[in-house]
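# nightly structure sweep
# worker-07 picked up a monomer target from the shared queue
# config: single-sequence mode, recycle default, output format = structure tokens
# input follows
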Amino acid sequence: MSEPARSADGERTLRLRVFLPTETLVDARVVKVIAEAEDGAFCLLPRHADWVAALVPGILLYTDPDGTEHLCAVDTGTLVKAGDEVRVACFNAVPGADLATLRQTVEDAFANLDEHERETRSALARLEAGTLRRFMEWEAEH
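# output follows
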């Protein structure tokens, strides 16, 4: 069995990776991870038992070995702690320096998603209307 990863001062660490469908957003050594699941927030430390949780939209907070806290807004997803690895998989996530900046970034991202969703619904409605029209024309011919 291999030795657990440690920081420069000998403190045990975890390897945190946050995966999106198109990229790895975070790949860092950390000493603590705080996340939120359906039944509430929880904290993971290197010596904690393995864990699986269904994440709800919220803030993932992690602390690097130097004591610096980092924030990442995450969408629904899954967190798995196995040994010294914590893996988070979600569809959307946004890193941020502080809560105010992160909030604005998330609001902007949601506004863009809402606009994209409206455009998609409009295109789908046009496609459905065209299909119905062609079907009615075909039915009238036969």
